[in-house]
Queue: 2 jobs
Job 1
Amino acid sequence: MTRFLTGKVTQYIFVIFIMLTLNFLLPRLMPGSPLAYIAGEDIMLMTTEEKEAILEAHGLNKSLLEQYVIYLGNMATMDFGYSYQQKMPITELISERLPWTLLLTGLNLVISTLLGVIFGTISAWKWGKRSDVSLLTIFMFLSAMPSFWLGMILVAIFAAQWGLFPIFGAQTAWSNLTGLDRVTDIAHHLVLPLVTLVLITVTTTYMTMRYSMLNVLGEDYIMMARAKGVKEKMIKYRHAMRNALLPVATVFMLSLGNIFGGATVIETVFAYPGIGRLMFEAVLSRDYPVIQAAFLIITLSVVIANFLADILYPILDPKVGRNNG
Amino acid sequence: MKHNRIGIIWLLIALVSALFAIPAGAENHREVKLGITQDERSLNLYTYNTGFPGLELVNLLYDPLFILDKSNNPIPWLVKEFTVSDDGKQYKMILHDQILWQDGKPLTSEDVKFTYEYLLKYKKSRFTTPAALVKSIQTPDPTTVIMELEKPEPDFFIQPLADLPILPKHIWSSVTDPDNFNNSLGSGPFILEDYKKDQFYKLKANPQYFKGKPEIDTLVIPIIAEANAMFTALAAGQLDVISRRVQPELVKEFESNPSIKVERGPGFATTFLQFNAEKFPMSDQKFRQAISLAIDPQYLVDTVLLGFGTKGSPGFIHPATSSYNKAVVHKTDVEQAKSILEQAGYKDTNNDGLREAPDGKKLELVNLVQSNNPSSIRSAEIIAGWIKTIGIDMKVRPMDPDTVISLVWPEYDVTKGRNYDMTMFGWSTTMQLFPARLIDLFHSDLAGKGGTNIGGFKSAEFDKLAEQLDATLEPEKRQQIINQMQEQVAKDYPIVPLYYAEEIGAYNPAKYDGWVFQDGKGIINKLSFVSNGEKAAVTTEQPAATPASTTPATATESATSVSTEAQANANSNTGKGTTSIVTILIIIVVVAGGWYLLSRRKTKSEQ
């Protein structure tokens, strides 16, 4: 087990290093310069010296290697720097955005996993019957829908047409609501983006659960249980569902990795102030420090989730543990 | 059991509906919600982000000495009366009495002097360059400002006087890092009450405003980057007005919405086909002329802009401005284009239907288009088709906007070269406000006067006219030279102006109906936000600033702003009805399906 862990840790440190390097290089390899966004509309009127002064002030006229060394140093000390465009510390910027994304994606993870497991179980249990076919059709249909399109349809019907929900934002910030009113307001704003996200992501869990459950149902011990006259409910929940949950756990862990950055499109459609939208805006404006910090958080979360999945799997499934240990 | 379950579902639905029922808030004061597209940081003249709407918002909090009226004529604002010396070098201005900063302190000539000098010390290019025209400022008393200029400046009223907001000396005199100073206390009609980064601004009316309290009590300005979200929010009544220009395809839909009014008029943003005049064959005037002859700008206006625009004038200047030369007209003639190319030696030597260069080499031309601009892409595709009919092959290549800029205008410095054949490009409104900007656009001195000559175009005749314009003060004479410059540009084809898209604004008249359409800018401008009395005074008192310099006269007849009354439309109701029916059907199917599944399960388990 120790050898397994050491191996994994080395592997992941290597991945993180590659990721940090790409994170540095990719935005800089894109054509275009952040200069225009730092200087704003003044750029057209600026003299060459004034432009040079700006590049100098932001360390952008240094060689790529020098910038890379500084970057690695900053990342190691968790100093994410200052946003070129927003002119504020990135830690502040991210700490404002992160809670909204976590609220949205966290709830989505819980709800879509639960719904996926429930419907996947029902579907497999009724394999080939009308309810299975109907559920399968609905979920296949959902999985084929682009998230922004679904989001826009929901907005058009429930927000624009019927006026049931707000169209943009995470809260009616300017009303200065407090207490329960504020919670209700936030929930009100959350409904449409959350529903969209759940509808888009639930399919993966559903499919995994259905497939895994079907496999389990074909196992000998289920037949044995049936032969022994164990109650159907007992077989379904105690024997089959529990064992079928293993691949779902993997899906869950991988989705956990997406918790920081998995809602970019939804956040854009609903003008939701999360970290996905922050990153999207940063890419558009070549705001290197923000891109670096946001990508770092997102990629780290994916790597950590993978690492956790690697460690937890042998515990969940002792068979795997024996093979590796 | 079955009934219980269905009962619980209904109870849940009822609870959720009750929770989210929108409270009908009765408001005593007038609150208007204005949607903008991006954060404009703290709203002062050092920190705002964009020229529009950022600077417009700054101008709700601060005041310049003059402002531009709806036809873009400069009129006095903080200034009560003024005189200009005969040589055009001395401007004497008397400020209104009793103008107060929003903290109650008086605004005096000292603040004006301070602002102009501060901008030279801490540079802000947009304001510093014009402010540097002032040699010295005297303030003999608290309301008198005397500015001495190095040399006469024909556009001095427009910039800096009608562009540069005045800062309070008592707040800014100790500030040494203005780019990061988050203070927005001004003298303007609105006071910044609340601001949450990336989310919203909240402005409240300044009760002590020297031109009277505005009609709007509270102005809430949410930031919504996504275009669709903004349009939907306006249509659904969650916003009352938007700063984003309404897309042509949405105009009909908005006009049919009884709660929305659409206001439109001339827009001064110019879209054109730019040639890289330093590269063959774009360096050949005959070649550029042939391309121009193959293009039909009116067709682009009708199809790409759905008619909401004006076709490009080959002299660049918008027909709705007073500087426009009517004699300059675009000509479309495919046959002439072909014969010009033929005579200039561009012939199809290998019979593949496409012309080769006079030296027999294949012509492979690329037109760069910014991928975030669907109208430009569509126009470029249509143009490519036209050019093909005269035997020239031009590929359209949409790219990320920053990539296009880095190829066309590296580091926004025309002396750094260019790497393209042709590009679809645009200049913003301000370019049309100053006819003298023609010099920046087409002068051959790239390191000096031709600061925005992105095509590297060179013409000795044009340069000569530019020198003449610089040396001329008398308005009529200047206009004559500007007319000649337009003719010269129309003869040389450094660009092919395609169209000027209309400014189209939309708002909810039930919430506020005091919008003033400013040519080239639209309804989001300072005049829209001042008191009704002031608005009436501004729109009737004409003209104000008419010194011994060029001041744009009133706009031509084509500049009429078109206001479209919204009306209840049967079509839109049918559309709404269909959506509702489809949604209801989907809900019925889902509920019935669920009920069927539940009941089946129940029956089976009972069996």
Job 2
Amino acid sequence: MTRPRALAVCCLLAVSATGCGIRPTGVTDGGAAPTGISQGMRVYFASDSGPRGVSRPDARITDLNAAFKLLLAGPTAEERAAGLANLVTRDQAFSATSRRGNVTINAPGHYAGSPQDQSTGQLVCTVARAEVLLHGTRPDKVQVTVVGADGRAGPYQCQQFLSR
Amino acid sequence: MTRATRTSPGDSTTPEPAAKTGGRRAASARVRLPRIGGLRGRLIVTVVVVALISAVTATALAYRESREAVLKRAQSAAVDDFRNSVERLSPELDVPADPRSLARFADEVSSGLRGSLVVARYREITAVSAPSADRTRLTPALRAAVRSHSRVSIQRVEQGGQPWLALGAPVGLDAPARHGSAARPSGVEVYAVVSLAEEERDTAELVRSVQGGLVPVVLLSAVLALLAARTALRPVRRLARATRRLATGELTIRVEEKGRDELAELAHTFNETAGALEHSVGELREQEALARRFVADVSHELRTPLAAMTMVSSVLEEDADQLTPDTAHAARTVSAETAKLARLVDDLIEISRFDARAVALTVHELDLAEAVRATLAARGWSDRVEADLPPGIRARADRRRLDVIVANLVGNALRHGAPPVTLTVRAAEDWLTVAVADHGPGLAPETARHVFDRFYKADSARARSEGSGLGMAIALENARLHGGTIEIAPPAPGVGAVFTLRLPLRTDSAS
């Protein structure tokens, strides 16, 4: 091998070793797509970071009141382990009615606090979800009013409780 | 090597120690300045280049492998983070999605991905975790892939000199629990751009460490090459020195045969060659010595009978007038030929003594004009030669040998040249010159080249001329004995042959 050619090979190797950092690539596959957007019923429980929804895909609800039953059933053991808890007290005669997306919850023993109150958020979001499923209302069009022990509160949107 | 060869003519005449130091001097000069063209330079360059190639190749391969591993791990970690984050947060997302919930979703996914840029899209709604961020890192190719495949698509892009990993995936419906079955599309697409700067820093660090390691590798290989060159070059140099000394006639020189490699083989061959040369040169010298001794012996053996014959023939010649004309002619011829033979034998003996180096100068202080005049007078040439003899030139020389030289030069001019013959003696600085010129046709170049050879006759037709054919050879030997020479002037128009004897004015008696 003549000297110039050897030097050229060396330079080429050196450049190929040092010159390329991280090269751009084309689009490659990264595995299965994430899933999890639920079309079924969703129940909201309290967590450290505000109300969080968990899906109940097998639940069949026929009216808004059925949503309370799901809520009162509480989180599963798995969900409890993940830090979810039910703050809605059990023995209350809940009832809910809706008219064109405007939902009214009658909760005689419930003290509806501010939008920071997670138990109110649980009620609002769970019932709003049921309203969406039952009447096909757009989620952002659902307005929930809570009539509790200390009078009317709201109308609320579920988002108000979720976004801190 | 060139340098060594250049110094060799000087070394050839100097005695052994001088030659040795000369060789060492050349060697040390080569060590200080290794020439690229030499064997050493070539060896070093080759070894360094090979070391460089192998080091660079190995590190390049290792670098590529480790970079791929680093990137692969970073990518799969990013994909896992992305998927987990999206799957954890997507239960709270409603479809059809509204801008507020989508923005919240994007924000939360972003906070789960070390604050990377996250873009969530649902139909015409687009939510960005950092609205001011540049979204061109999400290439059209990635968007198209996300729209057409319900998989996580990833792409490495470079922007602003920084590497980024862009991820994108449609978010499927259904719960995470039902992973196995194909998820129905929800229409929500999530993109994330994760920085790979840290990974690039890591790999760049690797390259830097490799670059730092290359310099010691090159230095080490150069040192190793130097050592290897030493082991290869030392025997070669020894061999070269031995060859030089062999050329100067030191036929007994041998080199050491060490090891079993090619160099040892070469040394062996050299020794064999030197041995064969020594043998045949020895034989030749022996034969030459025998031949010379033979000539000397024959000449000596001829001397006594010749003396008797000369005596007889001179008696016969003296009495020739009283003999019959035929007998008288025969007697004169015999006398002449005997005289010639006697001169030839004398010349032969003289030459033999030169060859046997058995001659010595007998140096006297003499007046040159007087010595030359005596030479001419003794041979009866005084009136045939125009001698230009400035008085007062004194020289130290062997009178008899000077006489032989001058007599041969003048006799040659008289015999073969044309008159007038001129003789000019000059002294300048430390040298004495005696120029003998005739006005004949001069010497042909071929003749001039051989005129000092033994038994050379310029005119082959005159094979039986008066000279023995040894005169000029003897003259030259005598001049050399004085430390001088005889030169022939180059042919010039109007001048015949010009022989110039150059002698040092002071010749030391020890020759």
